[in-house]
Amino acid sequence: MAFSPRTWILLALLLLLAAVPPVADYFGQPFYLDLLRRVMIFAIAAVSLNLILGYGGMVSFGHAAYLGIGAYAVGILAHYGINNGWLQWSLAIVASALVAAAIGSISARTSGIYFIMITLAFTQMLYYLGISLEEYGGDDGMQLKVRSQFSGLIDLNDASAFYYLVLAILAAFLYLSRRLVNSRFGLVLQAARSNEARTRAIGFSPYPYRLAAFIISGAMCGVAGALLVNHTAYLTPEFMNWTRSGELMFMVILGGIATTSGPLLGAAALLLLEDVLQGWSVLPKWLHEHWQLYLGVILVLVVLFARRGLASLLPGNEHHD
Amino acid sequence: MTDFLLKTSHLSKTFGSLLATDRVNFEVREGETHAVIGPNGAGKTTFIKQISGELRPDAGTIHFAGEDITTLPAPRRSRKGLARSFQITSIYRDFSALDNVALAVQAHAGHSFRFWRPAREDLSLTRPARQVLEKVDLEKRADILAANLAHGEQRQLEIAMALATQPRLLLLDEPVAGMGTEESQRMIELLATLKGEKTMVLVEHDMDAVFTLADRISVLVYGRIIATGTPAQIRANPQVRAAYLGEDA
Predict the structure, then answer these.
(1) A185 at the B interface (CB within 8 A)?
(2) Which of A173, A315, B63, B204 has the fewest CB atoms within 10 Å, i.e. is most exposed?
(3) Which structural domain, as residue segments, surrounds residue A290?
């Protein structure tokens, strides 16, 4: 199978990311390691959202729920002194999948605006549940005192080891989602997005496929949540805030829906821009003060001039990947 | 009774106060091409939708191949051998022509909870799909995005998708609608090659198509079938002439 130009670019991007730790170390800038790790964790969440939003046409406005569930699974076990990462992360995946199954079984029967509102409503419920859990810090959240332990295999306190773990998971998920969308399952999912009446007329019932995609997507995002809480070493219901769901959606759309590299490009563009506008002292002061405004302007321009997202600016065609 | 592949009994459907389908008894014999004609607003598409499973009738029954399918959802009917083309072209515009047909093959090749192997490299899907494309004369256009096909080609593609499900009955909702003379002539020729091989229900405005293809014709007016017969009988029927053909003359 020959690689398309887009695949080469994606591979080059991942290699570039792999080169960051030694370079940052050489220049004594560990901050960038932290920033890019965050970018990649959100890219993982965006990859999972792209599966249902991009390929499935299911506009989930509540994907932060699974970030939260993944994070709480790790945080709550740690709270009771269970620091075994295998256990914590398994729980993160299973709990996310179960919640996705529950939410999906209802929302996947609807479409359009109803789908958006139902996914949002469920996530708001979980958000307020998080706030009400005083035992786990309520709306203040709580510290993750010990990061997940993987039987000495990998130490998440080692910034660069953690970074490479995130990179490896990102690469694996990109590959996984690529396989998935081109499989029989993925084609049914895309067919149902493209033309539901036609899909039913040729003999597919879209619902079970949509539900399965929703569950897979939730489980993948649960992994991102487990990574995120280890990254911040802090657990907070803010992970499930609706603005977080909106950011994830924005990353997917900005990067280019239903493209392989889109979620990574979108996450990187949004978080890096945010960081540059917010923090770079070489930029004039007026930029810092109203950075959100300028971020908004830039995003509007990107959406206007690259309608199909940043990935559409890359050479080649997604369809023939 | 088993002579009939499809049979509706007292099929009725109302929208508000409008009787769109009024106690329709309709029978399609195995192997025949049965045209349904009628003026605009006669309820032809409503009738077809109840047969395909997109609309649930208010009363009456539908039997297909000796089985009551009145309450079966559309995907299940498709898997039992009912295929349909739509009045307004309904294809996957963002997929290639080959993908469109391969999906129809896939829908009838067991469940699709297969997550790993690339479906586009699966010869058990693409080989039959290419054969069907050849049958409708689109094999050279296999890799073209469906949206970029000409209108007539898109309609041919729809027929190909229906054929790829290996149906026992083809429901064709105005297959030559919106076509130029040459395109519609090609479509009529294509359907003529299927005649006899496939049982077809043909809903059509185009009288050329109807009188060329149909073995029998049913005339639907205000939701009721007012006559059924051979093309010659229908031409000669005074009631039909008054209600329908007269309008054209």
Answers:
(1) yes
(2) A315
(3) 5-320
Q: Closest Cα partner for B159 from B117, B110, B211, B197?
A: B197
d(C-alpha A277, C-alpha A129), whole Å: 34
A201: nearest CB among B52, B112, B122: B52
On the question of pLDDT at A85 being above 60, the answer is yes
Specify the DSSP class assigned to residue B56: -
Say whether residue A82 is in contact with chain B using an 8 A CB cutoff.
Answer: no
Tell me the CATH number for domain B1-81+167-249: 3.40.50.300
Q: What share of chain B is helix, strand, coil (3-state, %, to 5)?
A: 40, 25, 30
| Ranges A146-150, A277-281, B65-69: which has the least confidence | A277-281
E runs forming strands in chain A: 142-143, 234-235
Q: Is A109 on the interface with B (CB under 8 A)?
A: no
Q: B165–A212: do the CB atoms touch at under 8 Å?
A: no
Query: What count of CB pairs under 8 Å joins A to B?
Result: 96
Report the number of distinct structural domains present in chain A. Answer: 1
* A203 part of contact set with chain B, CB < 8 Å: yes
**Residue ranges of the domains in chain B?**
1-81+167-249, 94-166
Output the six-digit token pair for A217: 């997507």
Mean pLDDT of A18-28: 92
| pLDDT value, residue B117 | 96
Q: What are phi and psi of B86, to 5 degrees?
A: -100, 155
d(CA A80, CA A73): 11
Tokens 């014999």 locate to B29
Which of A180, A184, A211 to mutate: most B Cβ within 10 Å? A184
Picking from B45, B50, B92, B117 by the largest number of A CB atoms within 10 A of its own CB, the best residue to mutate is: B92
Tokens 């290996």 belong to residue: B166
3-state SS, residue B118: strand
Q: Look up the CATH number of the domain holding residue A191.
A: 1.10.3470
Positive or negative, the CA dihedral A151, A152, A156, A161 is negative
Q: A55, A202, A257: best mutation site toward chain B, by most B Cβ within 10 Å?
A: A202
Does B92 contact A184 at a Cβ distance shorter than 8 Å? no
